[in-house]
Amino acid sequence: MNAFYKAIEESRDGHNTQGQTGALFLAVCRGKVSEGLDFADKNARAVICVGIPFPAFKDTLVDLKWKYNDGKRMTNPDILSGQEWYEIQAFRALNQALGRCIRHKNDW
């Protein structure tokens, strides 16, 4: 991360000593970067997401939660089904990742 921030800082006023005018940072959804770091203001100008970050389908906790929700929905139709919960988790992760560079209304 330090190298990324250094490249951004050095290229704020044009080319840095290596001829760069910025930096490219790649990461995966559900990782540390997509949920734990702040790229406010000029530290990020775009996020490109390829695919939807669904939780690991074969994860034991995901399977248990899916089955739990399906069971609870039988007695209370207002509870999300396992499938609905699973899809919402994916879109929450997507919103979290995309929100890393959109921090406030004037952030551009």
SSE blueprint:
Elements (H helix, E strand, L loop, with lengths): L1 H9 L21 H5 L23 H16 L6 H17 L10
Describe what this molecule looks like in 3D.
This protein is mostly helical and 108 residues long. It has 4 helices and no strands. The longest helix is centred in the C-terminal third of the chain and has 17 residues, at 82-98. The two termini are 21 Å apart. 5% of the residues are buried. The model has no long low-confidence stretch (mean pLDDT 81).
State the gist of this model.
With 108 residues, the chain is mainly alpha-helical. The protein has helices spanning 2-10, 32-36, 60-75, 82-98. Helix 3 (60-75) packs across helix 4.
Name the features.
108 residues, mainly alpha
The major β-sheet equals: none
The helix/strand series, from N terminus to C terminus, equals HHHH
Distance linking N and C termini: 21 Å
* DSSP helical segment count: 4
Q: Percent of residues in helical segments? A: 40-55%
